[in-house]
Amino acid sequence: MVGALGNTFTTAEALGSGVHRRELYSLRDDGSLIELSRGVFRWADAPVPTFPDLLAVSRRVPVAIVCCVSAAAVYDLTDEIPIAVQFAVPRQHRSPRIDHPPTEVFRFTAERFELGLSSVEAAIGEFVRIYNRERTVADLMRLRNRLGEPLALAALRRYLHSRDARPRDLLAVARELNILGPVRTAMDAVTAE
Q: pTM for this one?
């Protein structure tokens, strides 16, 4: 029963594998389990996750895709430390309520919701959905009035100066998100520096 569970699991998965709720909470209370978020547990002796908050949110909201500042931090496109896990859900999806970790939800259109979808290993063998570097930069540019233009331009600058930058792919994503003009203008300014 308990051995069938992975390093990170939800209450529903534990109950589904035959663990009684009382046993689950007893394991939490004696320190064998760490509760990452309400209803999301991780074995205390499991390897420490690289991104525990992202892992917790992805288990709470499987449709979620890490985006914006949270994604930029993963890709080292910003020095800003996110105060909340920023993730996107499809516009028609019910907004999840998560008390811990702090979160900020973005609603993106269903047609382009999975554009630039990638994944990152949040813990050994456990992956989280995240937008790729190009989609992250394009979203920061698209949401620059809400998140801050200096943040968006700094992420673009870091992206363009990185060894694995793919400006053509960034422009393709920007075109799909109807932000091609501002991204191209910003790219010209950054490359002229």
A: 0.89
